[in-house]
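Subgroup meeting minutes
Present: P.N., E.W., G.H.
Scribe: E.W.

1. P.N. recapped why we're keeping a running log of single-chain structure predictions: easier to compare across weeks, and new members can see raw inputs and outputs side by side.
2. G.H. added today's entry (287 aa).
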Amino acid sequence: MPNGPAVRRRKLGAELKALRGRAGLTSGQAAGLLGWHQSKVSRIETARSGVKPGDVRRLLDAYDVRDPRLRELLVALAGTEQDGEHRRWWHRYRGVLPPEYRDFISLESQATRMRTLETSVVPGLLQTPRYARAVTRASLAGVPQAQVDALVEVRLARQEVLRTKRPLELSAVIDESVLHRTIGGPEVMRGQLAALREAAALPHVVLQVLPYTSGEHIGLTGPFVIFSFPNTNDLDLVVLDHLTSSLYLERKEDLSAYADAFASLQARALSAEDSLLLLAERHDDGP
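Output recorded in log:
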């Protein structure tokens, strides 16, 4: 990942092109300001080549972009760990993490909001260590124990985004079946249900349960994640997970469709307060 996967290059290139346009510069003029050939700017904007974080900063300076959070996001999309800076924590796991997962974690760490639908398991950011281990073992049967341990460590480390000074805003809709599926055994599920109640009480977490009584709904097509980033909707992404890969959707039509779908699911789900009551009942009754 010397310059980030294609999805990140496309997002970065499109945003840099838009910023150049707002600055009233042609690609040739921008290149001239930096002593580059015009083709370099063109390749960056069309994602035909990657770009170093230092070059992103130079472009942002040339375009007079001063917003610190927008600058941070665009530099992160270029891959700050490759610019001699402090490497991101997930870099040490690159031997066991596929590129799609590394990119997912990178985007998650920079997002300001995450909307997620889960139909089978508790969202990864809300899983307890024992629950995460049981899910990982089930989904990666036959994988060496050391790799399972590393993947569980990664899942737990990801949860730090909910505990920072500016935590990720998490809106999660989970199917009621998730509360009834006994993963890891009754004791593990009791601990997981208790953890969900604690998470649901956090001011930056909205957890809603989609009850069995909701009947058929658009979420039957499967789980998804929507990432939103500071200052611009143009960098929002939808992520669909498959068994061996992830699909990133970035077209405005796709983003609009999934945003509407999530809003529909939230409307059909129990309120956050009623969901918390259901969690308490489920925990007290025992899995």
